[in-house]
């Protein structure tokens, strides 16, 4: 750590083109952080649903409103993508789909599958 | 965790909780509360490992690392 190596730095964000696997990987991280930040809210909502009939009804009322629906769709997308990309990582740990063509295909499946689940959720909620 | 999520989703498809009592009884039934407890334990353990991995990759100063909630 004491030796400073000058690594090449390229931060032109509009010119960086990430391969699909990199996109899946970084999205897996981002969704993981989003989900971790969402845990306290999830516990709070679960508690609200179980505390009393009044709070249950109140919670139902909240989720009739579109901002709550929109946030839940984002969280559902994050969870779906995180699960799919996580399965992909586990499979590549046991050497399934590690070769580039298969890895690319599974990366596309994870990215599009996550969006598909989100679209399904949006169709159900709205 | 995945099995628990899928199990809850299938339950919601079959009989969505339409009343407080129905929902409360289902959650407090023995099998669901045991599975739910295991789910939360696994979720928190997984969150800890995952957030720690991310912190180790991006946060290098030791002092900042130790100050973050997921001790590395």
Task: Describe this structure as you would to a colleague.
With 126 residues, chain A is mostly helical. Chain A contains 4 helices and no strands. The longest helix of chain A is centred in the first third of the chain and has 32 residues, at 20-51. Chain B is 79% helix and 0% strand. Chain B starts with a helix and ends in a 5-residue tail after the last helix. The A-B interface holds A 29, 32-33, 35-36, 39, 49-50, 52-53, 56-57, 79, 83 and B 2, 5, 20-21, 23-24, 27, 43-44, 47, 50-51, 54.
Which features does this protein show?
heterodimer; A: 126 residues; mainly alpha; 4 helices; B: 72 residues; 0% strand
Characterize the main sheet of chain A. none
Biggest beta-sheet profile of chain B: none
Tally of alpha and pi helices of chain A: 4
Indicate the percent of residues in helices of chain B: over 70%
- Give the averaged pLDDT of chain B, no decimals: 82
Radius of gyration of chain B: 18 Å
Strand content of chain A: under 5%
CA distance, first residue to last residue of chain A:
52 Å
The residue-averaged pLDDT of chain A reads: 88
Overall shape of chain A: it is elongated
Annotation field: number of helices of chain B? 4
Could you give a short description of this structure?
The complex is a heterodimer of chains A (126) and B (72). Chain A is mostly helical and 126 residues long.
What is the element layout, followed by pairings?
The complex is a heterodimer of chains A (126) and B (72).
Chain A: H1 20-51, H2 53-62, H3 66-93, H4 100-125
Helix pairs in contact in A: 1-2, 1-3, 1-4, 3-4
Chain B: H1 2-14, H2 20-28, H3 30-58, H4 62-67
